Write the structure tokens for this entry.
Amino acid sequence: MAFSFELQHTSDGARAGVLRTDHGEALTPVFMPVGTQGAVKAMTPHMLREIGARVILANTYHLVVRPGSDLIAGLGGLHRFMGWQGPILTDSGGFQILSLADLRKVSHEGISFRSHVDGALHLFTPESAVEHQAALGADFIMSFDYCTGYPCERKDAEKAVELTSIWARRGRTVYGARFEMNGYERALFGIIQGSVYADLRDRSLADILALDFPGYAIGGLSVGEEQPRTWEIAARTAAALPADRPRYLMGMGTPPDLVEGVARGIDMFDCVMPTRNARNGTVFTTRGKLVLKNAVHAKDPAPIDEECACYTCRNFSRSYLRHLFNAREILGPVLATYHSLYYYCQLMREMRAAIERGEFSRWRAGFIDRYAPGEPNGA
């Protein structure tokens, strides 16, 4: 099949398309559950397929540190290693490395760092980041980038743009922007940086677009900046990207974030939020967040979400789920995670259907009207 992206429908700026890879296809817009260390926490690959997940994300930094990309490659690659036969996207590892403020050193060559696991010294270069991801066997590979936090001084944002552009060029020279290895094709995505500075975003756009990647990611957002600024930058950047290439907004977010991202022409999303919150007892519903540990649910026979058709909602009450969390039973995080990821995937399916009907703006208005912030902890 090889890699391709086909834009099929648009509605009020929102896009519906199909991503095709040698490991299958995914309809867009698509949410990618995060399997940081080669596993989506509390979920089996069978469960992920059952809820409609089509692409999952794995983290290069964590898998290189433990158990090692060479080990995974020797066992047939990440698809075989983790028992997932659908498409996989790997991030470059740059964000995780840069979060190790006291354990890393940045230079034009790359980033040297000490492992958080055993203190061993590693060096990630733009070339080795691509090589590691190719060894892992990802279908979508991310260029090595320099991601800043917020607030971000202009000089730091300029450094991020400079290094991200240099590193993207170098990473592209390893195998090219599209390459075949072990019998299937991989696609290398470029990443746009620039923090909240419009002119630096424009500079990064020009540099990365000149390299003609088969897909593009918008990085460096949702790191603490005000939401209006997030969406202003996302919209401005997405509008400048080629219409025939997939657009990936990294690290977003809540259900309203997904809706607002799709409204601005984004195709691909990932975030740890649904899984992280679920295993701590907070789930997402059509009416907002629900805190299962709250006392108000102690005798509640209702499902998490009356409008949800997932296995959890069809079979278990809020009262039972609250009991599981209070008793620290493993089943609690499993059932809660199953629901939240099902809800995220269903949300993407609903948005795609609205785009296909040419009614996305109307659908979005209805979503905003009924989605609430949710109940506070301890209610």
Remarks:
- The first helix runs from residue 45 to 51.
- DSSP finds 15 helices and 17 strands in the chain.
- The two ends are 51 Å apart (CA to CA).
- The CA atoms of residues 202 and 237 lie 8 Å apart.
